[in-house]
Known about the structure:
- It is a single chain.
- The protein contains eleven helices and seven strands.
- The protein has helices at residues 7-74, 77-100, 105-130, 138-221, 235-300, 306-335, 349-359, 361-366, 386-402, 448-452, 461-471; strands at 345-348, 370-374, 381-384, 409-416, 420-427, 475-481, 485-493.
- It has a five-stranded mixed sheet. The protein has a two-stranded antiparallel sheet with strand order 1-3.
- Residues 499-512 have low confidence and may be disordered.
Amino acid sequence: MRAADSVRDRVIMLLLSTVMLVTVVAGAGAIGVTSLTEDVDVLVDDLRPAAYSNIALRNDMSRAQASARGWALTGDDSFLRTYRTSVLDAHMELAQLRSLVEDEEELAAAVAQQTDAADRWFSFADGLVRREPGPVPVPYLLDGQVTFERFVALNDRISFKVNDGIDERGEQARGEARHVIVFVVLASLLGTAATALVGRAIVRRTSEPLRELERAVERLAAGDLSARVDVSGPREIRGVATALNTLAEENQRAREMEERVVTQLRQLDRAKDEFVSTVSHELRTPLTSIAGYIELFEDSFDDLGPQQRGMLGVVSRNVGRLRNLIEDLLTLSRVEADAFRTSFDLVDLGQVTVDVARDVAEIAARADVQVEVSGPETPVWVRGQAGQLARATLNLVTNAIKFSMPGDEVEVCLDVVADQAVVSVVDHGIGIPAQELSTLGTRFFRASNAVEAEITGTGLGLRIVQTIADNHGGRLEIDSVEGEGTTARLVFPVTNDQHPGNIPQLEDITEG
């Protein structure tokens, strides 16, 4: 294909015409902006500051005049201090005003006259404040008033001249801006027309192949891995089409490989679950035997010394820890199996919380912790598996008791908020460090302060609770402050269907 048919060549033509347009417009704009900048600089740097400085001078002189009269009549030192401050400010404003208008001959002359008038009044005022307080001769005051009025007249004259200069410069800037805008608009219209002709030629040559590419991409995005595009059009588009077809073929092969990998991973996951379940079951029997022999050994031999009984206690505690770990592994394996979801029944969460409170009564009594249960008097129905819901609530309550201090209280509250049942378990124990809250619910995770306090646990309890909540379409929320306590919430959707029909009941998942 000839180079003239290349999109690159056509784009270069479009870019050249655009560059020419931008150059012309930028040149005109630069000339106009330079002229406007000069006028604006005069306005911003000289005339407007001069107007403000002239007004400030007028205010300073008026304040000085009032303060001098106040001192002459009353002798109050506050008037004298105000007078001196105002005179100092007026001298500073006069110096600034002279520097601002030094390039404007007419204004500079007017400011010089105003400075002379101000100096004359300063001489009068200095004599006035040096007098002893009391009545001042009227002719003396009239001379000072005439001098001050001459200053005011010159001040007004300067204000008029400055404002006239601002208006003149502003009108000049507006006129130049209009000329620049007209030129820029005309140049832009002509350049746009030329650019449009070149762009139309490019679009006409490339639009159809691009639309075909778009349709092929949409089909691929929708999951049609067989979508392909005809290789046609300018050479750049042909290159894109070839690359897209190659990508589609590789994506199809990758998808097939991914499906095989997913299948293998599922098989491995099932094998892992079966292995954990088998090993856990196999370990339960020897652990039970070990625990039995330990109890038999302790009961059969009365002459055991303290050291021997201590060693047996260590073995017994570690057997208990292994047993709890195995039970938690089995429970987690079963709740992650998902098979129970088809056998949900109606469950009253209120009854679940009451039953859990009864189940932990002995544990709470041994830990000297009070468990308080509150909730609505009417049933709160959710759809789920009663044994799992009880296990999730039990884990949260036992955790709260475990991490509480003797004499503390654990609150178990059931509420219904916006068609959602919320089981809240609140304790006032050791809490969880803020930086570790994001890792809660991961397998075998235990808070650092719990480990330091040597509080036993497997690190699977919250993982089990979270999995049960997910399986029931709910969620687990935890708020905690280290050293103040923890609030754990189980949130489940409330159901209005109170007719379970023929849905079968599952055995409690913690059994067996």
